Each structure stands twice: as structure tokens, then as C-alpha cells.
Amino acid sequence: MNNSSLKLAGAVILGILAIFGLYAFSGATLGVPISKVGYTFIRYVALFLVASLMVWVAGKFVAQYNSGWFLQIIFVGMASVFFAWIALVASSGNRTQTMPGQPPAPRTVQQLENFVSGGGSSEATAVPTAASATTGEEAKSELEAIMQKYNLPEELAKFDDAQYVSTTKIYEVVPAKFLNAKDKNGQPVKIEDADMFKIINHFVNELRKREEAKASKETSAVPAPAAPPVAKAEAPAVETPAAPEPAPPAATVAAVSTSDDPSKYEAVYRKRCSACHSLTANAGKMKQKWMKTEDKTKELVAWMQRLAKGDRSKAFNDAEAAQIVAYIRSGNKLY
């Protein structure tokens, strides 16, 4: 080996050491152990040397055979080896630890599940789930214990009717209110995630309890529909003992005056019927089944009226029901 070869080898070695120095400095700055830095650096240097050797061998073969197609095969082979090596390095179980005292980041579904449930670290705590939520007095007791634990002021435990109007609002307002709160001594507090879950759970339960009580109160306040007056049957005269004809069945929806123009009830029809469903989607079905006779139309509207009573914003009275029947029977556009 002549002096030029020695100089070239020395320059390569010095270059590798210089790159390793930069590598080690970067690792030390990020808190990566030197053993991890050296392990990763050696693997990539080995990749570089193997690739260089392959290029040198490929050049010898090309110079020997001077074949154009042989050169393409060599480069395809080199690319395959390079990407295979990269895949091997990336899929290795040896991961660089960048956070001292913390487990490596999970890379599979199983590792992620174990990490969340506490398998990734002996100090990890399980995150509360909906299955572990409590209700009623138990949820209230949990809130009282948390208030004592953090020495929080009593006003935080009160249900804010102005802000806690829905479950979504509770999830927005409660965390912000408690995380920015101070204890009775004026010191900021740091509430744990598990305790915050219990706090939110209590207010959600309280909201549902109030909604159920309100719905029950409204239901009991609605008066029962008055029974229609029963007409007394007159005794038939003795002179004419003919049997009385059976009375026709009571109509489910009263009829409107024949002097009215049904087309003026279009607004009532569109407002009340479109509150629950699409008029366009149901117009064809209505024509096929519910417009054959007037009784079928009245039956349909009476059924819709009973369903709409469950929501006061959609309910309509008997007069509006009769107007809807008149409009449907008039042959006007049902949209």
C-alpha cells in the first residue's frame, strides 16, 4: 500500500470520527445515551461501507464486461439492498430513549393498549372510562371528597343553571372552571385527570336528573283530554217502534266549513307537517294510501297529531288538524 492509499484511508477514518463527534454532541444535547448514539452510528457507517464496496465491485464488473444491461442490474440490486437495510434499521426493537424515566413510545396496537392501561410503566395510572362512571349519591359523594381533597371553595360545587345547559357545555365549562380555580387559601390547584373525570361525571348526572324532573313535571301538568259529551238517546215513540239506526263512528278529525277555501290552509299544512318529515319524500306515499278516502286522510292526520303531542313545539290543535285534512283533500300541491 503506497502513501496515497494510506492518506486516503486516514482521511476516511478522520471523516467518520468527525461525523461521530457531531452525532455524539447532538445526542448529548437531546439527552440520548452515548451507547444508543454509538450503536445507531455504527449501523449507518456499516451501511455506507457496504454500499461503497458494492459500487467498487460493480465498477470492476462493468469495466470487465463493458455491458450496458449489466450496469442497470447492479444499480437495481444496490437500491434493493439499501432500502432493505433501512427497513431493518427502522423495524428494530432497539429504540432511542429520548425521555429519561419514561417508557418507549408504543408502536403497535397491543403496545398502545398496554401503555394506556398502565402496562407501559409501573407508575402509569389507568384512565377512567364511561364504564367506571358512578351515578346518583355516589357521584355526589365523590365530588364532596374531591372538594375536601383540594380544599376548594363551596361555590364550585354548585350547579350553574346558566352555563350547564347541556352535556356538551358541561364538558366545555367545568374543566376550564376547575383547572383555573384556587383553593380556599388563594393558592392555585392542580386537579388530577381521574378527579376531573369524577367532577364532570357528577355534573352530567345532575343535569340528567334535573331534565328528568322537568319532563315529569310537564307531563303531570298536561290535563287529560276531556271525554266527548255523550248524547242521551231519546226513547222511540210507542206509535213507531222501528229499531233506531246505528250511529256512525265518530270522526277522528272534525271537518272544516265547506264555505272555506282549502288552499288558504297551505301555510298550516307546510308548517306542521314539515316539522317532523320531508313533504317531498312523503307526498307520493300519501297519494297512494292516505288520499283514497276522506276517512283515511283523517286517520293519518289524527295519528300525526298524537305523535306531535310529545313535543310542544310541534303539537297542533284539532282546528289545525281539520284544516290540514281539508288542504290534503283539496287536490292542491303536496310538495
Question: Would you give an account of this structure?
Answer:
The protein has 335 residues and is an all-alpha fold. The protein has 3 domains: 88 residues; 89 residues, no CATH class; 68 residues. The protein has 11 helices and no strands. The longest helix is centred in the first third of the chain and has 32 residues. It starts with a helix and ends in a 6-residue tail after the last helix. About 8% of the residues have low confidence.
Q: Main beta sheet, described?
A: none
- Structural class, please? mainly alpha
Structurally, how many domains make up the residues? 3
Shape: elongated
Computed Rg:
41 Å
Helix content: 55-70%
What proportion of the residues form beta strands (DSSP E)?
under 5%
Unreliable stretches covering 5 or more consecutive residues? 93-98, 120-127, 240-251
Distance between the termini: 97 Å
What's the mean pLDDT score?
74
DSSP helical segment count: 11
Number of strands: 0
Order of helices and strands: HHHHHHHHHHH
Relevant terms:
335 residues, mainly alpha, 3 domains, elongated
How would you summarize this macromolecular structure in one to three sentences?
Helices cover 59% and strands 0% of the residues. The chain is mainly alpha-helical.
Topology of this structure?
Blueprint: H1 3-30, H2 34-65, H3 68-90, H4 109-117, H5 136-150, H6 167-179, H7 193-221, H8 266-273, H9 279-290, H10 294-308, H11 318-329
